[in-house]
Amino acid sequence: MMQQTGVMVALMLLVAAPTSVLSLVTGQGATSNAAVQKVIQMLQDMQATAKKEKHEEEVKYADFETFCTNEIADLKESIKKAEEQIEMLTSEIEKLTNDVGVLGEEIAKLGSDVAGFEADVKAQTSQREKEYADFVAESGLCRVDRCAGPCHHSADKKRR
Question: Would you list the domain boundaries of the chain?
Fold first, then answer.
Protein backbone atom coordinates (compact mmCIF):
# COMPACT_ATOMS: atom_id res chain seq x y z
CA MET A 1 0.00 0.00 0.00
CA MET A 2 2.81 2.41 0.95
CA GLN A 3 4.70 1.48 -2.20
CA GLN A 4 1.68 2.29 -4.36
CA THR A 5 1.35 5.71 -2.76
CA GLY A 6 5.07 6.36 -3.25
CA VAL A 7 4.85 5.30 -6.88
CA MET A 8 1.85 7.57 -7.43
CA VAL A 9 3.67 10.56 -5.89
CA ALA A 10 6.71 9.89 -8.05
CA LEU A 11 4.52 9.73 -11.14
CA MET A 12 2.83 12.98 -10.23
CA LEU A 13 6.18 14.70 -9.76
CA LEU A 14 7.45 13.39 -13.07
CA VAL A 15 4.31 14.56 -14.80
CA ALA A 16 4.20 17.90 -12.95
CA ALA A 17 7.89 18.86 -13.26
CA PRO A 18 8.14 19.00 -17.04
CA THR A 19 4.79 20.73 -17.27
CA SER A 20 5.77 23.48 -14.83
CA VAL A 21 9.05 24.03 -16.66
CA LEU A 22 7.19 24.13 -19.94
CA SER A 23 4.64 26.59 -18.58
CA LEU A 24 7.37 28.94 -17.43
CA VAL A 25 8.93 28.91 -20.85
CA THR A 26 5.69 29.38 -22.74
CA GLY A 27 3.97 31.58 -20.20
CA GLN A 28 0.89 29.40 -19.92
CA GLY A 29 1.05 28.67 -16.17
CA ALA A 30 -2.69 28.67 -15.44
CA THR A 31 -3.64 26.43 -18.35
CA SER A 32 -0.85 23.98 -17.73
CA ASN A 33 -1.53 23.92 -13.99
CA ALA A 34 -5.13 22.87 -14.73
CA ALA A 35 -3.85 20.05 -16.96
CA VAL A 36 -1.56 18.81 -14.20
CA GLN A 37 -4.41 18.95 -11.73
CA LYS A 38 -6.54 16.95 -14.16
CA VAL A 39 -3.80 14.29 -14.46
CA ILE A 40 -3.46 14.19 -10.69
CA GLN A 41 -7.24 13.76 -10.33
CA MET A 42 -7.19 10.96 -12.93
CA LEU A 43 -4.38 9.19 -11.06
CA GLN A 44 -6.27 9.52 -7.78
CA ASP A 45 -9.39 8.10 -9.42
CA MET A 46 -7.35 5.21 -10.78
CA GLN A 47 -5.90 4.63 -7.31
CA ALA A 48 -9.39 4.59 -5.72
CA THR A 49 -10.64 2.19 -8.40
CA ALA A 50 -7.63 -0.08 -7.91
CA LYS A 51 -8.17 -0.12 -4.12
CA LYS A 52 -11.84 -0.94 -4.58
CA GLU A 53 -11.07 -3.77 -7.04
CA LYS A 54 -8.35 -5.07 -4.72
CA HIS A 55 -10.80 -5.17 -1.81
CA GLU A 56 -13.43 -6.95 -3.95
CA GLU A 57 -10.81 -9.46 -5.08
CA GLU A 58 -9.74 -10.10 -1.46
CA VAL A 59 -13.37 -10.74 -0.48
CA LYS A 60 -13.86 -13.14 -3.40
CA TYR A 61 -10.62 -14.93 -2.58
CA ALA A 62 -11.58 -15.28 1.09
CA ASP A 63 -14.95 -16.75 0.07
CA PHE A 64 -13.25 -19.14 -2.34
CA GLU A 65 -10.68 -20.15 0.26
CA THR A 66 -13.46 -20.86 2.78
CA PHE A 67 -15.33 -22.88 0.15
CA CYS A 68 -12.19 -24.91 -0.64
CA THR A 69 -11.48 -25.55 3.04
CA ASN A 70 -15.03 -26.76 3.63
CA GLU A 71 -15.01 -28.90 0.50
CA ILE A 72 -11.71 -30.50 1.46
CA ALA A 73 -13.08 -31.38 4.90
CA ASP A 74 -16.30 -32.77 3.37
CA LEU A 75 -14.35 -34.74 0.79
CA LYS A 76 -12.05 -36.24 3.42
CA GLU A 77 -15.08 -37.27 5.49
CA SER A 78 -16.75 -38.82 2.43
CA ILE A 79 -13.58 -40.73 1.58
CA LYS A 80 -13.30 -42.00 5.15
CA LYS A 81 -16.92 -43.20 5.14
CA ALA A 82 -16.47 -44.83 1.74
CA GLU A 83 -13.33 -46.65 2.91
CA GLU A 84 -15.18 -47.94 5.98
CA GLN A 85 -18.05 -49.11 3.80
CA ILE A 86 -15.63 -50.81 1.39
CA GLU A 87 -13.98 -52.61 4.29
CA MET A 88 -17.34 -53.70 5.71
CA LEU A 89 -18.61 -54.90 2.32
CA THR A 90 -15.37 -56.75 1.60
CA SER A 91 -15.63 -58.67 4.86
CA GLU A 92 -19.30 -59.39 4.16
CA ILE A 93 -18.40 -60.70 0.69
CA GLU A 94 -15.78 -63.00 2.20
CA LYS A 95 -18.27 -64.32 4.77
CA LEU A 96 -20.95 -64.88 2.13
CA THR A 97 -18.45 -66.59 -0.17
CA ASN A 98 -17.59 -69.00 2.64
CA ASP A 99 -21.30 -69.53 3.32
CA VAL A 100 -21.83 -70.37 -0.36
CA GLY A 101 -19.18 -73.08 -0.16
CA VAL A 102 -20.66 -74.58 3.02
CA LEU A 103 -24.21 -74.42 1.66
CA GLY A 104 -23.08 -75.95 -1.63
CA GLU A 105 -21.65 -78.92 0.25
CA GLU A 106 -24.86 -79.25 2.27
CA ILE A 107 -26.96 -79.12 -0.91
CA ALA A 108 -24.83 -81.83 -2.51
CA LYS A 109 -25.21 -84.02 0.59
CA LEU A 110 -28.97 -83.44 0.74
CA GLY A 111 -29.23 -84.17 -2.99
CA SER A 112 -27.51 -87.51 -2.53
CA ASP A 113 -29.77 -88.21 0.49
CA VAL A 114 -32.86 -87.44 -1.62
CA ALA A 115 -31.61 -89.71 -4.40
CA GLY A 116 -31.09 -92.50 -1.85
CA PHE A 117 -34.53 -91.94 -0.35
CA GLU A 118 -36.17 -92.01 -3.78
CA ALA A 119 -34.37 -95.25 -4.60
CA ASP A 120 -35.56 -96.71 -1.26
CA VAL A 121 -39.14 -95.60 -1.96
CA LYS A 122 -39.01 -97.13 -5.43
CA ALA A 123 -37.61 -100.42 -4.11
CA GLN A 124 -40.15 -100.55 -1.27
CA THR A 125 -43.03 -99.66 -3.61
CA SER A 126 -41.95 -102.41 -5.99
CA GLN A 127 -41.73 -104.86 -3.07
CA ARG A 128 -45.20 -103.87 -1.82
CA GLU A 129 -46.69 -104.31 -5.30
CA LYS A 130 -45.20 -107.81 -5.54
CA GLU A 131 -46.48 -108.70 -2.08
CA TYR A 132 -49.93 -107.37 -2.93
CA ALA A 133 -50.02 -109.27 -6.21
CA ASP A 134 -49.06 -112.45 -4.36
CA PHE A 135 -51.76 -111.76 -1.76
CA VAL A 136 -54.46 -111.22 -4.38
CA ALA A 137 -53.42 -114.35 -6.23
CA GLU A 138 -53.51 -116.47 -3.06
CA SER A 139 -56.73 -115.08 -1.61
CA GLY A 140 -58.82 -114.96 -4.76
CA LEU A 141 -59.91 -111.40 -4.06
CA CYS A 142 -60.19 -108.69 -6.68
CA ARG A 143 -57.59 -106.01 -6.82
CA VAL A 144 -58.57 -102.94 -4.84
CA ASP A 145 -58.49 -100.78 -7.90
CA ARG A 146 -61.34 -102.81 -9.47
CA CYS A 147 -63.63 -103.74 -6.61
CA ALA A 148 -63.66 -105.06 -3.06
CA GLY A 149 -64.57 -108.57 -2.12
CA PRO A 150 -64.40 -111.92 -3.87
CA CYS A 151 -63.45 -111.74 -7.51
CA HIS A 152 -66.37 -112.03 -9.85
CA HIS A 153 -64.79 -110.38 -12.87
CA SER A 154 -63.43 -113.62 -14.16
CA ALA A 155 -66.96 -115.00 -14.25
CA ASP A 156 -68.15 -111.93 -16.21
CA LYS A 157 -65.42 -112.45 -18.74
CA LYS A 158 -66.42 -116.08 -19.25
CA ARG A 159 -70.05 -115.11 -19.93
CA ARG A 160 -69.18 -112.69 -22.67
Answer: 2-159
